[in-house]
Amino acid sequence: MEGPNSTGQPGPVLQDSVVGGSLHTGNIIHNHYHVTQTTTSVSPSLAKAAKQIADEPERRPAIYVNPSGNPLGSEDRNLVLAYVFCICLGYLGAHRFYLGHIGMGVLYVFTFGIFGLGWFIDFFILPDLVHARNQRSHPP
Question: Which residue(s) pair with 30 in the sheet?
Answer without folding.
Answer: 33
